[in-house]
Design brief:
The complex is a heterodimer of chains A (176) and B (146). Chain A is an all-alpha fold and 176 residues long. Chain A contains 8 helices and no strands. Chain B is 79% helix and 0% strand. Classes of the chains: A mainly alpha (176), B mainly alpha (146). At the A-B interface, α2, α3, α5 and α8 of A face α1, α2, α3 and α4 of B.
Amino acid sequence: MDLNNLVEECLGGNRTAQKQFYDGFAPFLLGVCARYLKNRMEAEDAMIMSIHKALTQLDRLRDRSTIKGWMRRIAVNECLMVLRKKHVVILDADQVVIQSQDSDVNLDLNASDILSLLAHLPTGYRTVFNLYILEGYTHKEIGEMLGISLNTSKSQLIQARKKLAQLMGTQNNLTA
Amino acid sequence: MKSDHLNTNDTLNQTYQLFEKGLVKASDSLSIQPNPDSWNQLESMIDTDKRQSPRRTYSLSQWIKYAVAASFVLAVGVYGINHLSKAPKLVQEDLGVDAAPYFTSYLAASHHIAGYAPVLEGSRVNKLSPQNVPINAASEDTFMEL
């Protein structure tokens, strides 16, 4: 079944199509959610909510070729909602104790490496890093999404990079 | 310190930049198999939606029923209001505005026919008395003419 047919069947309430839709997008969306939410259960819940929202709002999707990006945005928004509820989106940089950890530099990253690295970042750093580097949002957009200033977004990103570099063991090569 | 931070992007070393590129590339293809129970959870949410959707249709039909009922009530109400507003008006016309002229004209006509002088307001007692106004022949002529 191609994507158009799948969407049509899902809109018609076909349960088999909905399961197929879930099977196709759930791993990808869970990957997105797990980058934002360290807790696996929270990430799963956000993923389920995202697919549920997508299924109920499929008729609003005009260009079906952009469905992956559309669902990704839904998942990101869902994760940000979870973080907002917990009031832990942005941490003051001074409150974060950066712990030096030795780790091997490995550019061939797999899923667990990415999640492990991101899990070491404080929530605020991780969120801004995800939004800016991995999703491609601008600092202005991030500021609006998180309710922070443009400079706060920039500084959070720099702190995130510093922390990641630290994790890579390249801290000494960075100019402060 | 902030300006130093803002310049950090330029000073990131080659290794970190490669690392970040690798991270972006890897995250694009990042996928994690969800818990098998997740589908059941989603399915129950969809079922809940489905159970709620017939209620929406029912609400629409209910709305139509309410609209018909409301139209009927409105029609009855309009009829009732018209009926009630006319009743006091008729009474008022009879007793207040129209009654006196009607009575006066009736008396004038009947007296004229009977040969009495026309009744004037405020002098009914004297002029209405048959003893004061005798019947004459002209009245009979007038009667015949009528």
